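FAQ

Q: What does a record look like?
A: Structure on top, sequence underneath. For example:
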């Protein structure tokens, strides 16, 4: 009984700080809604890249892409005035790989479907890439 109690008390100490794919995506949501690159740096791998189909462009210009620093440039001084909702649709994990489908809505502007790829590198889940498709609000 004492061993079981000790494991119950000490066990969480050893697992604290480990991330799961869900925690990683939830941290991304928090950093995105706050427009806070410092939070995003904790979950976006330094080699992260984002590709998307722009609902504002046509033809060859529809395909857009940026690296991690380029994504951080999205967040201007008015970002916090936006109403943003987020939801995880699905997460699948297979060993050190996780894939997440998420919905990010910038109310009155656009709804993004995000396909998020994550890798577990040395015990930490990192978002390594994101592919998004946007539908303009009506």
């Amino acid at each position: 009984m004492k061993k079981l109690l000790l494991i119950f008390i000490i066990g969480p100490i050893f697992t604290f700080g480990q991330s799961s794919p869900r925690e990683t995506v939830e941290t991304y949501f928090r950093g995105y809604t706050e427009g806070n690159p410092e939070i995003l740096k904790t979950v976006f791998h330094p080699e992260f890249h984002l590709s998307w189909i722009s609902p504002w462009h046509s033809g060859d210009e529809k395909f857009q892409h940026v690296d991690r620093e380029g994504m951080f440039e999205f967040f201007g001084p008015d970002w916090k005035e936006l109403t943003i909702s987020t939801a995880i649709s699905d997460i699948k994990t297979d060993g050190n790989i996780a894939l997440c489908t998420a919905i990010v809505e910038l109310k009155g502007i656009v709804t993004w479907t995000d396909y998020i790829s994550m890798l577990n590198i040395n015990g930490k889940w990192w978002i390594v890439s994101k592919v998004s498709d946007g539908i303009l609000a009506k």
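Q: Is there anything notable about this one?
A: The two ends are 61 Å apart (CA to CA).
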